[in-house]
Amino acid sequence: MMNDGSEQMYFKLCSDHLSVEAIPKKRVRVDLAKLKSEPPQEYELLMWTAHFAVLRSESGEEITLRRDGRMIVRKSRSEDIARKAAADMISVVLRDFRA
Questions:
Q1: pLDDT of the chain along its 99 residues, tens only?
Q2: Phi and psi at residue 66, in whole multiples of 5°?
Q3: 26 with 96: CB under 8 angstroms?
């Protein structure tokens, strides 16, 4: 079985019941400066600050990614799809944007 990133994260449904918070099990440092200068092809960079970035996946989820790897996934059709979007994002981070 391939590692899709979901085993590396804790998930919880946010209080609005529309968003999912994803928290890495192990410490992660995200290179947000590199993310800004070289955004991943499969995501649109909507907003960037020194502390977090907001990206949109090809399927429409909005992912707020913090420097410590925590993220909030919004605008997803279901909790399962939001979890998959977070797992996909952490895989991209670990592959290309680990500080």
A1: 344 566 778 999 887 778 999 999 998 999 999 999 999 999 999 999 999 999 999 999 999 999 999 999 999 999 999 999 999 999 999 999 988
A2: -95, 165
A3: no
As a CATH number, domain 29-96 is 3.30.310
Whether pTM > 0.85 for this model: the answer is: yes
The amino acid occupying position 69 is G
Domain positions in the chain:
29-96
- How far is Cα 86 from Cα 79, in angstroms, rounded to an integer? 11
Element (H, E) at 24: strand 20-24
Any residues with CB less than 8 A from the CB of 84 and at least 6 apart, and which?
4, 6
Closest CA to 13 of 68, 76, 90: 76
